Amino acid sequence: MKGKNLYRMGAAIVVSVLGIWTLVGPNLVLSAETSGGKNLAERRIEMGVEYPGIVISQDESVGMDVTFYNRGRFHEEITVWVAEVPSGWEARLKTYRYDITGIFVPSDSEKTLTFEAEPPDGIAPGQYVFRIAARTADGKYAMDRTLTVHVEEKKSIEKKYRGVKITTSYPVLQGPSDARFEFSIEVESKLDNDAVFELFAQGPEGWNVNFKPAYESKYISSLRLKANQSSPLAVEVKPPVQAAAGEYPLTIRVSSGDAEDEAKLTVTLTGTYELEVGTPTGILSLSALQGKPAGLTFYIKNTGSAANHDIKFMSFKPENWKVEFRPETIASIESGELKQVEMTITPGEEALVGDYSVNVGVEGEKVSKNLEFRVTVKASSAWGWIGIGIIVFVVIGLTGLFRWLGRR
Hints:
The chain has helices spanning about 1-35, 380-405, and strands at about 45-50, 55, 60-70, 75-85, 90-95, 100-105, 110-120, 125-135, 140-150, 165, 170-175, 180-190, 195-200, 210-215, 220-225, 230-240, 245-255, 260-270, 275-280, 285-290, 295-300, 310-315, 320-325, 330-335, 340-345, 355-365, 370-380. The chain is mainly beta.
């Protein structure tokens, strides 16, 4: 009887645990999946304006980032709009390509969009307040942020007419000197009539800078836009192969009559990584005796424009052979610098006479080179003397034999 009670009690506990897991388990799994194991709140959305207060001139427009931070365990869809705009101003929220009204923010991540505002012609100096509002798709969470723009009187040196605007999301690109860089820009006409805009580019001496339509390979030097139309363009930049590492500024300009705008772009070069390896004589062969070391020198030259660090050596050799390098590694070789490496190859004691291949790998930073050496193994000189002794012994023996037979 007592055993039956214990059994019933255990069964009741199991059923209770399963019931609790049915209710709570999926939430725990969902929490782990959406939070990546972090201790996140169930729902937490924040909105931030890059610069809540700015000062501009009468002839300037406004452009800045608005970032949404999702610190909750669940993905969120957020509706966003400009809730308050000063009279006469035009304002919008956009990405690189589209005006937007909503944004999707995954759990434990952030998303950024761009706020732009254009003042009316002849705007008076003063303070202008914008309000950007947002709410989650289910309407449970709402937020807003204000942006205060202080407009100052136009400077004595007037800015060029605002008839066209260039925007780019990535004004700085980085890569090696032998890479081809491509900036994505958008040219937006602010004119009330169709116009042809001339395209200009100025880069460092020896650099090639060209304009292309987005997703096309042909080069262009002008662009036709309808009134208040925008068009994406690509700016292709090709530096000289031997350009040194560093930052290089470029200027692009778009103009049509009095309408003109320019943008600053930057290419950051990390340099090229190239190595040249070989022997001073160009000969990649040597002779060695069984079990005896033989030496050879080869060089490594940095023919790239960036320093090469942490250079190692590897060898692929016949079984029971030994290959050694001095130095064993090279910490760094500057551009144009040459260093020598002494290599010692020791054939195996039982190596047969003949030709063998030994491959040497030079592993540098982002680059590797290989050398193949032919090693001719010869018999030890001791065996030569032994052979000569045997021959002499045979000759003497035969001579004695012939004399003895002659006497008989």
